Structures are given as structure tokens and as C-alpha cells.
Amino acid sequence: MIKKIINYFVRGLIVFVPAALTVFAVVWAFTTLDGIFRDLFGINIPGLGLATVLATIFTMGILASNFIGKKFFKLIDKLFTHIPIAKLLYSAVKDFIKAFTGEHKSFDKPVLVELLPGGPKAVGFITQESLEKFELAEMVSVYFPQSYNFAGQLLIFPKGRVTPLNVEPADAMKFVVSGGVSTT
Q1: Neighbours of 20 (CB within 10 A)
Q2: Which of 77, 85, 92 is nearest to 154 (CA)?
Q3: Any bridge partners for residue 164, and if so which?
Q4: Residue 79 vs residues 61, 74, 92, 159: alpha-carbon distances, Å
Q5: β-pairing, 121-128 with 139-145?
Q6: Shortest CA distance to 127 belongs to which of 145, 148, 109, 113?
Q7: E strand or H helix at 122, and its extent?
Q8: What is the pLDDT of residues 4-54, one digit of tens each?
Q9: Cβ partners under 8 Å of residue 123, min gap 6
Q10: DSSP state letter for 157
Q11: How many angstroms separate the CA atoms of 54 and 29, rounded?
């Protein structure tokens, strides 16, 4: 009887926790954006903050796609890349977003890396196939996302210790981020 109760509880956790965390994140983002919009402009219309942010991002995308917009955003880009501390943050965030959404996605080459000869292996993503600029011609850079976390490590390995995986990049990422428990 107790075993059945524990089993039901565990199943309830499996269903409840991911759904609750997702709902919490969405509600938090929604209310935070609305609160910021309400505090700045004194307008209290539910959803207006989120709608404004989405519309602003969409409008910037349209502007960045035409000739004049490209010139303007190139100027903004140049400004941010010449401010010492802002350059570091701006460039890192821009490159990270481009890695997932840009024309040249960086996390599209899942690999299995032998960490020690005959030892443990890890799933990662090749981000640079040529490191000649660092005088490491026979090396590749491999990014390892961390399980249950939004972080990772970038390690450099000899090409011979890196094996390409014949899986969809999204499936490899989901596998790693889930700690290896994801089956879909």
C-alpha cells in the first residue's frame, strides 16, 4: 500500500513539476513585463507589456532587414563594440543568440568526445572546426551544455578524439540538458 502511494506521488511529481515551472516562468515574465510597463507609463492593461516587447522586437527585425535599418543597426553595433566593458557583454550575448537563431548556427554539430583514452565520453557540440588563429591547427572547440542548467563549458580536443553523432542537434541538446534522461 505504501509503495503504491509513493508511486502515485512520484508520478504526480513527474507531471506537476515541469508544468508548474513552465507556467510559473511564463506568468513571471508576463507580470514582470506588465509591471515595468505600468510603472513607466502608468497604464494598467494586462498583457500590454508583453505585447509591446514582442511588437518592438518584431519591428526591430523589420527595420534590420532593410537598407537604412541595416546601416543604423551597424552603427549601433559599432558603438557597443567600442565601449570597453559593454563590448564584452554585448558581443557575448549577440554571439550566443546568433548561435541558436542566426544563419550560421553554432550548435548544429553534435559530437561524442572521449575525455580520456578508453575512459568516459561526453556529448557536446563543435563550435569551431579550425583553431589556427590560436595556433592549434589540429584542435576543435567543443561546447558542453550542463544538465539542468543554462550554462556549459567549452573545451578543446584533438580532432581524433571527437566523433560526430548522427542525431538531430535539438535531440542531442535535449539529451544533455536533461541529464541524459530525455528519450524524445
Answers
A1: 11
A2: 92
A3: 111
A4: 19, 9, 15, 38
A5: antiparallel
A6: 109
A7: strand 121-128
A8: 888 888 777 777 776 777 778 778 887 887 888 778 777 777 777 778 878
A9: 110, 111, 112, 113, 144, 165, 172, 175, 176
A10: E
A11: 12
DSSP 8-state assignment for residue 43: -
Nearest one of 109, 107, 108, 114 to 162, comparing CA atoms: 114
> 85-114: per-residue pLDDT in tens?
777 777 777 776 766 666 666 677 888 888
> For residues 86 and 97, what is the distance between their CA atoms, to the nearest angstrom?
16
Could you please report the per-residue DSSP string of 106-144? SS--EEEEESSTTS-EEEEEEEES-BGGGTBTTEEEEEE
User: Three-state SS for 23?
Assistant: helix
> Which residue type sits at 31?
T
Site of grid cell 551544455: 145
- The string of DSSP letters for 74-85 reads HHHHHHHTTSHH
CA distance 154 to 134: 15
How distant is the alpha carbon of residue 158 from its chain centre?
25
Collapse the DSSP code of 146 into the 3-class scheme (helix H, G, I; strand E, B; otherwise coil) and give the result. coil
Contact between 143 and 91 under an 8 Å Cβ cutoff? The reply is no
CA atoms within 13 A on the CB side of 45: 7
Residue owning grid cell 557540440? 125
- The three cell numbers of residue 104 are 550560421
